[in-house]
Design brief:
single chain; mainly beta; 14-stranded mixed beta sheet; elongated
């Protein structure tokens, strides 16, 4: 935080990599039409040899192809998802839905990830060493999604036309994120080291969002519950929030924030019974 300290404990996501059987996916060629690759999960790979994994189907446009058309598969999976580590050695920007619905195990992407990485994941851990495209962690239920670069729009959000997004788990973004981070969020935690753009926490009902940097506009719009903490300047403040008090500590689960915060509640523009809590660091937002 600008004038504070973020301390938190990271819960154990499962077995360490040394206790897992490893499957390595090495890209064979440049991918033109993006792949729909929801089979790239420890759950789908568990109990399979390299040959069997290579025969799993992925969609490219209107057709399906074996995974081995796009990746060299090295190694065998563990007997269960929790004993399986998948390592993608290279850029996966054009590979969508990696880790979708996974319940255990680990995926490490040694590059950037395509859209929908970690969608609906229930457990385990995904580490993206580059950037993640839009919809990362969409409707996530559990586990850890750790993005070491930047993330696109709609992190932890709901599908279009649905109201409820992320319900559990933790998303950590070491860079910045774009629009509608945590839209419709019901639970879980999103931690952003950098900045966010428009409508962070729109329609939030529960859970915790912490942004260490600045936010562009619309923070907490239509928020009914949950907590948002912004460490930098909010460029355009949402009009439906009311000042409550000055606070020097924010606690949520195993996360503790220490600093000088202005606490607001809202969004009263949408409901007089709104219970959302918005904390902003005082010294960088003197006009609020």
């Amino acid at each position: 935080m600008t004038e504070g300290v973020l301390t938190h404990k990271m819960t154990d996501a499962g077995k360490s990599a040394g206790e897992m059987e490893e499957v390595t996916l090495i890209p064979k060629k440049t991918i033109d039409i993006k792949l729909e690759s929801d089979v790239i999960t420890p759950d789908s790979f568990a109990g399979k040899s390299a040959e069997e994994i290579g025969k799993l189907s992925v969609w490219q446009g209107p057709k399906t192809y074996p995974l081995s058309d796009f990746f060299e598969v090295v190694g065998s999976a563990g007997s269960s998802a929790s004993e399986t580590l998948i390592r993608i050695k290279g850029d996966a920007t054009r590979v969508k839905r990696i880790g979708e619905g996974m319940s255990a195990g680990k995926i490490e992407i040694e590059g950037s990830a395509g859209m929908h990485v970690g969608t609906g994941m229930k457990g385990g851990e995904i580490v993206v060493y580059g950037d993640a495209d839009s919809w990362a962690g969409m409707e996530m239920l559990g586990g850890l999604l750790h993005i070491k670069g930047n993330a696109g729009d709609h992190v932890g959000c709901a599908y279009r036309g649905k109201w409820h997004g992320m319900k559990g788990g933790r998303i950590v973004i070491e860079g910045s994120a774009r629009h509608q981070l945590g839209g419709g969020m019901d639970g879980g935690e999103i931690l952003v080291e950098g900045n966010v753009e428009g409508f962070c926490g729109i329609r939030q009902n529960g859970g915790l969002i912490v942004v260490k940097g600045r936010a562009l506009r619309g923070v907490g719009t239509e928020m009914a519950g949950g907590t948002i903490v912004i460490g930098g300047k909010i460029e355009r403040f949402s009009p439906g929030f009311e000042f409550v008090s000055m606070e020097n500590r924010v606690r949520s689960g195993d996360i503790e924030l220490i600093g000088e915060f202005k606490k607001f509640t809202g969004d009263y523009a949408i409901s007089k019974r709104a219970k959302g809590a918005l904390y902003v660091v005082a010294d960088v937002n003197p006009e609020l």
